[in-house]
Amino acid sequence: MKRGNEAAIDQAEWDRVKTRLKQEFGDSAYKSWVTPIVATSLRDGEVELSVPTRFMRDWITTHYAERIRALWNGENPSVRKITLRVDSGKIDVTKPDTVKAEAPKMTSAPPVAAPAARPAGLSRVPARPVAETAPQGSPLGPDLSAPLDARYNFENFVVGKPNEFAYAAAKRVAESDQVSFNPLFLYGGVGLGKTHLMHAIAWEIRQRTPHRRVIYLSAEKFMYSFVRALRNQDTVSFKEQFRSVDVLMIDDVQFIAGKDATQEEFFHTFNALVDQGRQIVLSADKSPSSLEEIGDRLRSRLASGLVADLHPTTFELRLGILDAKAEQLGVVVPQKVKEFLAHKITSNVRELEGALTRLVAHAQLVGGSLSLETTQELLQDLLRAHDRRLTMEEIQKRVAEHFKIRVSDMSSARRSRAVARPRQVAMYLSKQLTSRSLPEIGRAFGGRDHTTVIHAVRKIEELVKLDTAFAEDVELLTRMLES
Ligand code: ADP
Ligand code: MG
Fold first, then answer.
1. Could you give the C-alpha distances from 428 to 365, 392, 398, 450, in angstroms and in order?
2. What stretch of H or E contains 79?
3. pLDDT reported for residue 117
4. With a 6 A CB cut-off, is 55 part of the ligand 1 pocket?
5. DSSP letters of 257-320?
6. CA–CA separation, 115 vs 354, rounded Å?
7. What angle do CA 85, 89, 95 make, to 5 degrees?
8. CA torsion angle for 463, 464, 470, 475 (degrees, to 10)?
9. Distance (Å, rounded) from C-alpha 181 to C-alpha 240?
């Protein structure tokens, strides 16, 4: 990103600083935290460094920035301050000089593509040079496309049952030179890989057929650009920009919902492109038919191609993702820890990645190996947030189903083994999987005393040790409840 009046960075200086950092902090920390840093400018004694994620910015600021400043100051006394900015790792697919025209609103809060925390080591995937990916002679204005994340490619996408269909559809669109399904509509919950797949499609098309112009942007940005064009009475050139596109990808189209004028414009752009045989790829957090605020015409148009959904992850997929990410980070994470994470962090892949990053960062910087205890300690906040989502009602229901008894028996006075044992299991699981207190658990089970709950917990712990079949039951239930 270039700005008019900045002083250039002396690359040799920066290289020497990096060499020192490597000596001081060691190879692996260096690789994770220093190599992704790009020194972007020096002005008025202030060096600006850019890093790919917010997490990295925060981490480097607290752990390395002062050392970088001191070392650099030793090289060049005019350097007095270091600032970090989140930017790189995302490669701009349009022109390198996109900054000046970017609206402040969009730069400060990129609507979708900014992952909260991502494993730093992922940046070892070679960043593709801008020149290779920039559409030649693209007439597109700087406003219209968003940067692509080099790490969001097909190779880095772990495929499992929940996402294999969406993956296959994305692959197909990316690999066929002609328009295949039009539009391809990807949908699924937050953090399940929609943006990742869209970027992967864009990368692949760029690589296979560089002459095709791909534009990727969020629906919010689309709206924003359109509204701005309206205000500047420049909708004609806005439309022109889209006409020249071969592949139009719009992420999170649910944001278009309810905005009539933008919807209308989107609809026309959409139709014009489809009529010209251009490929369109869209994503949303809901299926087209559930996008309530979108007009009927547009909705049926959205559903007219191939609709592919990303299902919530399974334990196996989560484990696979953890394996892959740990490998990319170049760290060995004990199987137990991975399984624990895959059990506990079930909401979405982004959180799972964030958890792993935190563990790895800790291990690399503080030293020591990763154990279950450290994991639990380091991720306390995350784990607690997850606990709260699982209710005792849910536990009672699942356990009752599993043992084929009635849910009402969870709180009934019946004492026969056939109902008492499942009830104890449910109490035990409530203790293990929620943050409810013993008296609270007792109350939820027909107003029983907390000592009854303690007894149940002990009993189940004992049985699990003695009876492998029973232990498997409990294990299975635990997994099911946590996924
Ligand atoms: P969405 O757009 O659906 O909210 P993202 O595509 O931003 O989700 O994914 C969130 C994070 O999880 C990203 O860092 C992405 O790389 C990662 N991710 C999601 N699914 C997978 C997968 N199957 N394999 C590898 N990484 C994944
Ligand atoms: Mg997304």
1. 37, 11, 13, 12
2. none
3. 34
4. no
5. TT-HHHHHHHHHHHHHHHHTT-EEEEEESS-GGG-TTS-HHHHHHHTTSEEEEEPPPPHHHHHH
6. 9
7. 90
8. 150
9. 24
So what's the pLDDT on residue 436? 84
Residues 434 and 474 reside in one and the same domain: yes
CA angle, residues 395, 401, 404, in degrees to nearest 5: 135
**Residue among 56, 123, 192, 313 to mutate when testing ligand 1 (max atoms within 8 A of CB):** 192
Our answer on whether the CB atom of 157 is closer than 6 Å to any ligand 1 atom is yes
160 and 304, same domain (yes or no): yes
Q: Which domain holds residue 443?
A: 392-482
**Residue 219 scores a pLDDT above 60:** yes
Per DSSP, 372 falls in state H
As for how many domains the chain has, the answer is: 4
Mark whether 267 and 410 lie in a shared domain.
no
Which CATH number covers residue 97? 3.30.300.180
Residue 116, pLDDT > 50, answer: no
Q: How far is the C-alpha of 454 from the C-alpha of 450, rounded, in Å?
A: 6
Find the 155 Cα to ligand 1 centroid distance in Å.
Answer: 13
* Residue at a domain's end among 250, 279, 310: 310
**Dihedral (CA of 176, 177, 181, 182) sign:** positive
Please say which residue of 281, 310, 339 terminates a domain.
Answer: 310
What local confidence, expressed as pLDDT, does residue 24 receive?
77
Residues 163-176 pLDDT 10s: 999 999 999 999 98
Nearest C-alpha to atom 20 of ligand 1 is from which residue?
A: 193
